[in-house]
Amino acid sequence: MSTGENIQNNLVIKQENIKQKDIKQENNDQKNIKQENIEQEDVFQIDVRDLVHSFKPDLKLPFFIYSYLNRILHVKKLNQIHTESARKGGTIEDFLSTFVEICDFDFTITGPGYEELKQQKGQFLVASNHPYGGSEAISIMNNLISYHKDLKLVAQSFLVYLAPELKKCSVFNRNSLSSFLEAVREKKPIMIYPAGFCSRMLSNKVIFDYDWKSTFIKIVIRNKIPLYVVYVDGHVSNHVINWTRFRNFFHIKTNVELIYLIDEMIKSGGKAHKMVVSKPINPEVFTPDVSYEEWAARIRQYCYFLSKDPNLEFNPELKADFSILPLK
Asked: Does residue 311 sit within a domain?
């Protein structure tokens, strides 16, 4: 090969190397621009004043009340979750995983139906007790959303003010009946807390879910879909329980303790909890000779039985009798 050819080949190689460097630099520039755009975007951030005014536009509160709400609602941590989630990509998977990571939720999911639940095809319904009012829902949704992209959580409507990202995977059980019915009609899998509230201390001094509304039983029967029951251990603090007692004693209808559930949720982080998933229950076991309400009560009872025997199968013949529950 002549000297001229060697020089020409070297020039070609140098030009190719320069081209590759330019492409790499362009990709890095685009990546940096994308990151800057995310940081410059109007990422959702909670402002307690705006939050209060969204409920009561004319309400004016003292400064210390806003400071208290900032603390009890853990606004700084929630805003950190919104920011980090947006930086990751802003998908519902990003939001849920960021929430679990930053709050250090530690829920171990076991039970004979867990693997079946992950692989379940078509529409199904998951019903669970509700001890904390938030952390258990975020954790199980984070676990299942990668298997069931269209899974819908039935949640309290106030959560949308704190975490609008939940709109992507939730229907709300107040003022949004149409969205819930739409999810049912579209045969999307549903996660529901039939009590509608987190567990409270009942008249027998036992911390327990309120009556489970029978809506989930009707959906299972009419749509002929399997039912999974999930038991979650634990309960809210005495602070929330005492607020409930106070409100009931003075016949106060406003659910004052609702604002403390975010505090309960955040504080549940870093503690080990367990969830137990039952085997799927065939909808055909819910025969018409038993009322919807009684079926709901029997499933509620069965949920708490799982706390003692995770492998227990549902016995449709066993009537609801809460005096026999194996509670601690």
From this structure: yes
